[in-house]
Design a protein that fits this description.
Elements: H1 3-8, H2 10-14, H3 20-32, H4 37-49, H5 59-75, H6 80-90, H7 95-111, H8 121-144, H9 149-159, H10 167-179, H11 183-194, H12 200-209, H13 216-229, H14 235-243, H15 249-262
Helix pairs in contact: 4-7, 6-8, 7-8, 8-9, 9-11, 10-11, 10-12, 11-13, 13-15, 14-15
Organism: Asprobacillus argus
Protein name: HEAT repeat domain-containing protein
């Protein structure tokens, strides 16, 4: 295992999502490269903190992270990088995950030997922004696999804060829409996907998802969305769903109305 892969799978290791082989490989790398132990321990502290409210980060990481930013302040515009990155990391991110995100971004700077002193403030913020986007995406995928419905709901809500959405994220949302056992999570997945209906993969996926739904609330939500999109391909699966046994009367009526509004 190389250092780059080590960094990328820290979150998966801490959340128990690595295969047994990768789990062993990760621990072997860590034992053979003690210089990365501190970075791992820091990530471990903040990941553990994601399970509960964190009043303040640990003093050790507080010093390390903010000292790095303060060094940049003295070399460039006072408070420029500090405030920009602080807002980027903590402005709209849930408190219980904010520190996890912060330490992973800090780890990026430290691990890649980024010389902030020789970089412009703008470049530093752009690099932090890209790394934050990557980490946020990884956290979304990780939280979607959690047994807690609240965690999965949180993950779906975070998708809306991504500047760009990858095919992996889209597929994960559809997996949630079609398989999650919590109705609120499935409804939230639809809300998230509404933002990307200009993407053919999303429109096709929404149409394909219709027949898989058993919840009247989800059926109605999808039927309404098909009317907004005027998606003619949805007529066939809506008709098939109406024929299914035990379809809720209100949902059936809504789907019939939607079909008439589309054709």
């Amino acid at each position: 295992m190389e250092y780059t892969e080590f960094k990328e799978v820290i979150v998966d290791y801490l959340s128990g999502n690595l295969t047994e082989e990768k789990h062993i490989e990760f621990e072997q790398f860590l034992s053979e490269n003690s210089q990365h132990q501190e970075e791992f321990e820091a990530s471990k502290v903040f990941w553990a903190g994601a399970e509960e409210e964190i009043p303040t980060p640990t003093s050790a990481m507080d010093v390390k992270f903010y000292t790095m930013l303060n060094a940049q302040e003295k070399r460039t515009q006072k408070e420029s990088v500090f405030k920009s990155i602080e807002t980027l990391l903590f402005g709209n991110f849930p408190k219980q995950l904010a520190y996890t995100l912060a330490i992973l971004v800090a780890g990026f700077f430290i691990g890649n030997g980024l010389n902030i002193g020789n970089s412009s403030a703008k470049d530093s913020v752009e690099i932090a922004k890209k790394e934050t986007e990557k980490v946020r995406s990884e956290l979304v995928l990780t939280l979607l696999d959690q047994p807690s419905a609240n965690k999965r709901l949180q993950a779906v809500n975070e998708v809306g804060k991504l500047n760009t959405v990858t095919e992996t994220i889209i597929k994960a949302l559809f997996s949630t829409l079609n398989n999650d056992d919590n109705v609120n999570v499935r409804l939230s997945a639809i809300e998230a996907l509404k933002n990307y209906t200009d993407i053919p993969l999303v429109r096709e996926g929404l149409v394909s998802s219709i027949i898989h739904q058993s919840s009247p609330l989800v059926q109605i939500e999808l039927a309404d969305l098909m009317v907004v999109l005027q998606e003619k391909k949805a007529v066939k699966p809506l008709k098939e769903l109406i024929k299914e046994k035990d379809v809720n009367t209100n949902a059936k009526q809504k789907m019939e109305e939607s079909i008439q509004s589309i054709i």
